[in-house]
Amino acid sequence: MDQPIRVMVVDDHPLLREGIAAVLEGQPDMLLVGEAVDGREAMARFEVLRPDVTLMDLQMPDMNGIETIRAIRERWPEARIAILTTYRGDVRALHAIKAGAMGYLLKSTLRKELVEAIRLLAAGKRHFPPEIASELAAHLDSDGLTPREIEVLQCVALGKPNKVIASQLQISEDTIKGHLRSIMDKLGANNRTHAVAIGVQRGFVEL
């Protein structure tokens, strides 16, 4: 490429931004053109800078990465964005892809994959780690939770007993128990605590 790949980093942790900046400095074909700490700042910076590749944190205050990707891609469909995340959850990956992400980078493997991922995205290709791709393939159709099951699991994650969940969702306790049986069966969980742990890992619920 005659011109360097222009990169923007969106993350509310300065150490991560500095780490990425240090990696990019060592690449003659890449240039860090901007940084942002949240989704709204990312929108404003993207409009001015129009980077070739944007690296976007998943969890940020005010406006999360998935919402920001969706908003940017609606205005600039050609935007090439990769999610930065500490989570391997396939549900988060799926939401990011649906929002328009072309890449998914685990922060734990950034040092190894960052440069290659940026070059792939700049060339109009996608980058998804093999473990994320395999999880998506394994879970996409077989055991997705329904919106109601996710509601129930989120309530369980917050420590609410069945009686309180039933009252809050205006359904019977027996129905709650039925949802929990279905959730545990789909997730392969031994009990409700195990179901919450799996739900958090896979991105169905937030703690």
TrEMBL record:
<keyword id="KW-0238">DNA-binding</keyword>
<dbReference type="InterPro" id="IPR016032">
    <property type="entry name" value="Sig_transdc_resp-reg_C-effctor"/>
</dbReference>
<feature type="modified residue" description="4-aspartylphosphate">
    <location>
        <position position="57"/>
    </location>
</feature>
<dbReference type="GO" id="GO:0003677">
    <property type="term" value="F:DNA binding"/>
</dbReference>
<feature type="domain" description="HTH luxR-type">
    <location>
        <begin position="138"/>
        <end position="203"/>
    </location>
</feature>
<dbReference type="Pfam" id="PF00072">
    <property type="entry name" value="Response_reg"/>
</dbReference>
<dbReference type="Pfam" id="PF00196">
    <property type="entry name" value="GerE"/>
</dbReference>
<protein>
    <submittedName>
        <fullName>Response regulator transcription factor</fullName>
    </submittedName>
</protein>
<dbReference type="GO" id="GO:0000160">
    <property type="term" value="P:phosphorelay signal transduction system"/>
</dbReference>
<dbReference type="InterPro" id="IPR000792">
    <property type="entry name" value="Tscrpt_reg_LuxR_C"/>
</dbReference>
<keyword id="KW-0597">Phosphoprotein</keyword>
<dbReference type="InterPro" id="IPR058245">
    <property type="entry name" value="NreC/VraR/RcsB-like_REC"/>
</dbReference>
<feature type="domain" description="Response regulatory">
    <location>
        <begin position="6"/>
        <end position="122"/>
    </location>
</feature>
<dbReference type="InterPro" id="IPR039420">
    <property type="entry name" value="WalR-like"/>
</dbReference>
<dbReference type="GO" id="GO:0006355">
    <property type="term" value="P:regulation of DNA-templated transcription"/>
</dbReference>
<dbReference type="InterPro" id="IPR011006">
    <property type="entry name" value="CheY-like_superfamily"/>
</dbReference>
<dbReference type="InterPro" id="IPR001789">
    <property type="entry name" value="Sig_transdc_resp-reg_receiver"/>
</dbReference>
